[in-house]
Amino acid sequence: MACIDFEVARNLKIDYFRHLDAKRWADLRRLFHDNAMFAGFPFATGDADAFVQGVASFLDGVDSIHQGFIPRMTSIDNDTIRGLWSMHDYLVWPRDSRDYRGAKVPGLYGIRGYGTYEEEYRRLDGQWRISVMRLVRTRIDLLTDESLSLRDQDFLAPDPEWIPSELPHQIG
Questions:
Q1: What is the residue-wise DSSP string for the chain?
Q2: CATH number for the domain that contains residue 42
Q3: What is the mean pLDDT of the chain?
Q4: Which of 48, 147, 156, 165 is deepest in the core (most CB within 10 A)?
Q5: Are 28 and 54 in contact (CB under 8 A)?
Q6: Domain region containing 46
């Protein structure tokens, strides 16, 4: 397994976070094999199409920040890589507009979550895609207190073309 294969797998996950928070659903869908498997999400999942529909519905009206850290990659065979990512997400929505996993808490406006992603990346016809994605939560903080936000400040906006994320991800 070449180092480039691990880099391609890492870039798939980086693109996942970027497309998820930017709500670029067609770009997100292209990261997965058609028969990819998903587990641990707070919405119904099935194949890749169902996952993208589920996450799009779940994040409708939600501002989100998803982050992944310190990936650990290992080769299973020439066409399969397994990865483990530490993760943090921060989701906010209008106060009292929804519950989370059945938690109906007065004043709920979001969550701060922690855990890991367990993933598998497979190469099929020369193309690397995500084939398995498991979200393993270790902690979820429900956001209910008043907080200050610097959201309306003059922050530098991300440049979605800084590193193009055209697919297919493949090795040369």
A1: --HHHHHHHHHHHHHHHHHHHHT-HHHHHTTEEEEEEEES-SS---SHHHHHHHHHHHTTT-EEEEEEEEEEEEEEETTEEEEEEEEEEEEE-STTS--BTTB--TT--EEEEEEEEEEEEEEETTEEEEEEEEEEEEEEEEE-S-----TTS-PPPP-TTSS---S--B--
A2: 3.10.450.50
A3: 87
A4: 48
A5: no
A6: 3-143
**121 contacts 131 by C-beta, under 8 angstroms:** yes
User: What φ, ψ does residue 27 adopt, rounded to 5°?
Assistant: -65, -40
Residue linked to tokens 């090795």: 171
Query: pLDDT tens for residues 80-125?
Result: 999 999 999 999 999 999 988 887 888 999 999 999 999 999 999 8
- Residue 118: name the closest of 76, 80, 50, 72 by CA: 72
The pTM of this model reads 0.84
Which residues are registered as beta bridge partners of 142?
111
CA distance 62 to 48: 21
Could you give the angle at the alpha carbon of 129 between the alpha carbons of 6 and 54, nearest 5°? 125
